Structure formats: C-alpha cells, structure tokens
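Per-record layout

source: Aeromicrobium erythreum
name: Malate dehydrogenase
length: 328
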Amino acid sequence: MTHPVKVAVTGAAGQIGYSLLFRLASGDLLGPDTPVQLRLLEITPALKALEGVVMELDDCAFPTLHSVEIGDDPREVFDGVNLALLVGARPRTKGMERGDLLEANGAIFTAQGKALNDVAADDVRIGVTGNPANTNALIALSNAPDIPAERFSALTRLDHNRAISQLAARTGSAVADIRRMTIWGNHSATQYPDLFHAEIGGRNAAEVVDDQAWIEDTFIPTVAKRGAAIIEARGASSAASAASATIDAARDWLQGSPEGDWVSMAVRSDGSYGIPEGLVYSYPVTTHDGDWSIVQDLEIDDFSRSRMDATAAELVEERDAVTALGLV
Ligand code: NAX
C-alpha cells in the first residue's frame, strides 16, 4: 500500500455525496493499492446526517478507506488535502433571482477558495461540481492566488458522458468505440456538444450520423437538457451519474487520458479557439499526471463557431455579474 491520499468532498451529506463517497472509499478513483483519507465538509445543520453516512461508510469495511473526518470549517477540513471535490452548493430556490444565486454561491466559493489557498497540500487539484460550476470555479480560483489556476477545473464530464451515450444509442455502436467527444463552454443549456471531431471506430461521427437536423434538433438539445429530463422522470436531479462523472474526471486528471483520446474539462481559458482569456470554459483536453493541455488546431466550421461563441457569451455575462458583486 502507498501513502494515503487526502480527498476532500464538500456537500458530503447531499445526493451526489451519497454515491460519490462510497466510490471514493472503495478505490474507484485511486485503485486498490492507494488508501484514501476522506475529509468531508458540510454546513452545520447537515452534520448529523453526515454522521449517519459515515456510519454506513464504516459498515462497508472498505480496505482502501484509511480514515474519515467531518466538519463545518473549510480551514480544518481542507488541511493538507491533495484533491478537493467541491460538490456542495446553494441550489436555486423559489423566488430566487439569478443574481441572488450567484451571490449565495459566491459566498461559499470565495471562502472555500481562500481556505484551500491557505491550508491545502502543495499538489492540490480542485474539481468543482456544484452549480453554476464554471463560474463557481472561477470564483474559487480567483480567491486562491497562491494555487496555480491550472489546478482548478469545473465538471463537464457528465455532459461528455451523456453525449457519448446518446451517440452510441443513435448509431448502434459501443460506448467503447467512441472517442474524441467534446463539450465546449458552460455546464448549462448553452453548452455545445460537438460531433464534428468525435469518432466512432475511427470514423468521423458527424459523417457516420449524416443528419445535420438530428445533430441540431435532437442530439444537442437532448444532451444539454438531460439534467431537466432526469428531474422530470426521477423527481430529483442526477446524482449517481454526476458522482460517476466526478470520479471519471478526477481519475483521468490524475492518471491521464487514454492514448488517442481526449476528455472534456472546464478549465481557465488561455484564449485558445478565440475564447476570452480567463473564463472557465470547457475544452477538449488531454491529461497527464495531474496536468492538462487543451487540444489545439481543431478545424472549426461556422456552425461550431457560433455555438462556441454563444456559450462563451453566457460565461462572460456570469463573469461580469460576479465581478460586479466583487467576488472575483
Ligand atoms: P444536494 O442539495 O442533495 O446536496 C448539496 C449539499 O451541499 C447539501 O447537503 C448542503 O447541505 C451542502 N452544502 C451547501 N452549502 C455548503 C457549504 N457552504 N459547504 C459545504 N456543504 C454545503 O445537491 P446534489 O444533488 O448533491 O448536487 C450538488 C451540486 O451539484 C448542485 O449544485 C447541483 O446543481 C450540482 N450538479 C452539477 C452537475 C454537473 O455536471 N456539474 C450535475 C449534477 C448536479 O446537478
């Protein structure tokens, strides 16, 4: 067994947490030879429920689970963490305006960014799942000046996985045969799932599909609105699939994307593909040992360009709103 890795999860008593913690503890992220120390953050009223979840973790007797600590103070919970999965966020409730939502989450992600800056391990990686994920990541990284901005990412892997699954169903192909899927932009209804660079068994996916109307009127909206469809069917938002995507994203970030493939991750834009620098924007990236690099030189046609710009414009609006609130 190697040295234990300290993994923080926020919002640990929530729905996603209820799936995520058990997968982390059972070795799904780091494999059977790496013990995991879980550091779980919740708001004070949810600590009792979290104690119950910890009892269940104990009862699983996972050989890879080294220890669990819980708390409501990010400075204690994040102390020395190597990986922080920021899942907890304030959901939009009735009567809440968009500005109120950004402000409520701003308070959470400024405090957590500052705490990570001060107490996390030198090699920390931070993945943001809690919505609005891209802008929450922007707020957190802006409040952590001593942590390189490349250590922050926001989750678009669930959208990426949804896109693969929809494409596999339409073409009758195996998920394992699909590569080079890309989600561009925001984890929101403006995201752009791109089939023009994806491949099925080495063939261009858009050519295999050969139906622009299906791509525009069915594929893109189905992927972009899948979260709402899950709520409609299940009566609750995506949880196990979101936890699974959170694991996929962190695992590939730390251990590397598969040879010949890439993954979608929302990362701080360096201006690639004409996207304003500094936005947390989802790109196709390859990863290696905890670093990522944006896949360069993909040919972008007019259709893709307009979709990529539209989702960037929404992120610019969100950035302007949180800038006006003094959060970044
Ligand atoms: P839940 O409401 O079930 O759980 C959220 C938990 O976060 C609660 O237990 C709450 O007490 C806790 N929390 C709130 N403020 C906190 C703080 N300051 N510190 C620590 N914990 C805090 O939501 P759940 O279904 O688990 O979803 C969590 C977040 O993921 C939501 O923001 C949701 O919108 C987002 N999602 C993001 C997805 C993505 O692909 N990026 C997909 C799934 C999900 O919608």
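summary: Residues 157-318 form a domain with the L-2-Hydroxyisocaproate Dehydrogenase; Chain A, domain 2 fold (CATH 3.90.110.10). The mean pLDDT is 96.
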